[in-house]
Amino acid sequence: MDGRQVEPVVAVVSEAVRRWFEFYEVPLDERACDTLCSAAISLYGDGYQLVDDIATMLIGTYVGLWATRINAPTSEAVH
After folding, report:
1. Which key words are in the record (predicted)?
2. Cβ contacts of residue 36 below 8 Å, gap of 6+?
């Protein structure tokens, strides 16, 4: 290793999602949190493993609370 501490996935995802709420200055919303956490986990799996990278991607992809509703996958979309 290069001497950097590797953070657990949960810590990275939680902090990235918290930064999204802070950036958009919206109150914590469970539905939005679920959408953002799923997206953050997917980004982590795609190789974005730093909090700053994931938060930046979330902020750019989900522009405000409304976007978490529009882009949220539903069971109907899967079928």
Report:
1. Plasmid
2. 16, 17, 20, 58, 62, 68
